[in-house]
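Figure-free illustration: sequence to structure, shown twice.
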Amino acid sequence: YGIAVTANNAELAQFELSDSWQPVEHQFRDGTNEILFFTNQPVFSSRRSPIGRTRGFPDGG
């Protein structure tokens, strides 16, 4: 278990990836492949506003 973020979303949120984040190729339900950065270390997240629709989830998140 852990958390993953796309490089694009990390950039939009001005989030800096540390060495604990590892790139992993992921295939979404629509068949597209994307590199996600994954960590299983504890992460604190505070969202000020929506970043955008999350692909692969009908409800957007």
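We now fold a second protein in the same way, so the two outputs can be compared directly.
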Amino acid sequence: MGETPSGKAILKDFYGPTKAEVTAKADAYRAAHPEGPPSVDATQLLLEFLAIWLNLVVKKHNAESTYESYLATIDLYIVDSIGQRPLCDLTPLIIQSWVNAIAATGKGRTAELALAILHTALNDAVAWEILKRNPAAHVSAPTFERKKAQAMTLAQAQAFMAAAGGRQDLRKPIMRKNGKKMTPIAINPRLEPLYLLYAIIGFRRGELLALRWSDINLETGEITITKSLDKHRREKGPKTESSIRTVYADETAREALKAHRERMQAEHHQEGWKHDGLVFCTEEGTSISPRNLLRHFKTVLAAAGLPSTFTLHGLRHSAGSLMLAEGAKLTDVSKTLGHSSVAITGKVYAHGYEEGKRAAVAGVGRKFRRTTDSGEGDAPRKGGDGV
């Protein structure tokens, strides 16, 4: 009688004293509803409503990755719990208990996300006049310790790049189990330019993996970002409208890209090479699996002697932090990173931004202190207000 958000059949119960009567009731229901479940009303199960909402709203107006994320969250945390309740039976207490139960398993962020999805869906139920009010409106999101992406210091980023390029002498080579033997791992330096763009410009992973040579002007340094690659290696649109942007590679990045292109041109003549124009690809010319990139990143971390807690996304944060430390304006950093607003940039890099503001004031203060110490400052005139 319909499907759940993930496509599982929704069963409807019919009762009667005989099998023939139950069959007749089921046939009558199907005849009355030839196109599936009836139009949505407040007596419909939450999971049925969410299936309709996902297709009408989320799938039509969001990136595919957003739809898949919502679908997975609904299937895992809503369908088999409050999803079995009619819309009209939902109360703030029921929803709060559901949120608390998810958070109690140590999944505070998941509980927050699930509540946000439900709140948005039920807002639409109110807008569509299915419900008079949103029962999730006054439900409290769980409190939990948020994990902040760890940015590398300049020295750490330099050590990482040296390891990525195979320029670091390793006292203890990184070993990997190969059958019964442990063999040393040789780091392939072909991905060093990718990490360099991560750390200098602050790309997102998907943006780098979808980057093509046609997007880059190596003379001016202009790099146009219009697409991304998802975890399944499918090309998609940008995360937000502000993600479509032009960024600028400095001389260091341009020289690295030129050398990288020369190496790739030599590989083009190999048998089986796939000509896709990708800047960063496998040795066969195909797109890089995000999972393989992560594995390579972890190997480089170990080779550089850096904590395993660093993440690929942390390199992007390193770029933002280093830009601010060099005195870049918050608005320019925000545009380079492709944030949807300057407010987001300020929130993410609040610590570094505050340090920059302190340094700016301290710099002006030092100038006045030198003037005062040398006796060159103008003292307030007697009788004046001194202001």
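Summary for the second example: The longest strand covers residues 175-178.
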